[in-house]
Amino acid sequence: MWPSVIEEAAKRIQASSWAVALTGAGISVESGIPDFRSPGGLWSKYDPMEYGDIRSFRANPGKVWRMLIDMEHMLIDAAPNAAHYALATLEREGFLKGVITQNVDSLHQRAGSRHVVEFHGHGRSARCDWCGREVPREALKVQDVPPRCVCGGPMRPNFVFFGEDIPRAAYLQAMHMMERCDVLLVVGTSATVAPASHLPLMAKDRGAFVIEVNPNVTDLTSIHTNLHVPMPAGQALPAMVSALGLSLE
Ligand code: APR
């Protein structure tokens, strides 16, 4: 027997014709990567305006790179957890059209998800902030920060800083998915950072049923969420997969 919220979520997913997931840092917590805003998260150690904003990067790229290296150390040994595999299984079995993620850790792809929209970019490559030249992240030496391009410009990760636009292709794909989806599974996000935080509102306005998987309540829970599953993603999502009669990827 599953908790009734799991049964209900599984029923909604089964009955859906276009289900989509929106994920945030919480889905990777059980992979050992702290989220941003929980106690002990990255933003309790670093002031986001001082380290996460593009203006801060441009004013002092070396200082921001020291934070980025700290962040990368958290990601380096991380592997997908049961929640990532559960979403990959739902997609493989035809229950999920894709995942929009705010995460830059590539764990969805490593778990086998195929249609992943990286709303905030990714950490697999870096580019020059002046001329745009791209290099794979592993080709970048960071003994001296900031690492520099041959043109002299500071290299930057290929993810989005505060104050920057969402990559255009990712934005358009996410809009399309919000227009079409009839179930939105919101997993592990505080839904505090726009425009990602607007996606559940858009889906809801267009009639989608919003299932929120988060051990805590968020700004979405009482207003926009139709069904709150107050459990860690690594328990809740595999339970939904089992309740659908499937086994994990
Ligand atoms: N399972 C599900 N949810 C969890 C778990 C878990 N095991 N552990 C924590 N959470 C929830 C927390 O309760 C919180 O609501 O995950 C959420 C994480 O919220 P944030 O730390 O704010 O992360 P996120 O929503 O992804 O942040 C959005 O902010 O700084 C930027 O660019 C960064 O993409 C990031 C964006």
TrEMBL record:
Zn(2+) binds at C128, C131, C149, C151. Its EC number is 2.3.1.286. Residues 1-247 form the Deacetylase sirtuin-type domain. The active site is at H120 (proton acceptor). GO terms for molecular function: histone deacetylase activity, NAD-dependent; metal ion binding; NAD+ binding. It is an enzyme of class 2 (transferase). Keywords: Metal-binding, NAD, Transferase, Zinc. Pfam families: SIR2. InterPro entries: DHS-like_NAD/FAD-binding_dom, NAD-dep_sirtuin_deacylases, Sirtuin, Sirtuin_cat_small_dom_sf, Ssirtuin_cat_dom. This is protein acetyllysine N-acetyltransferase.
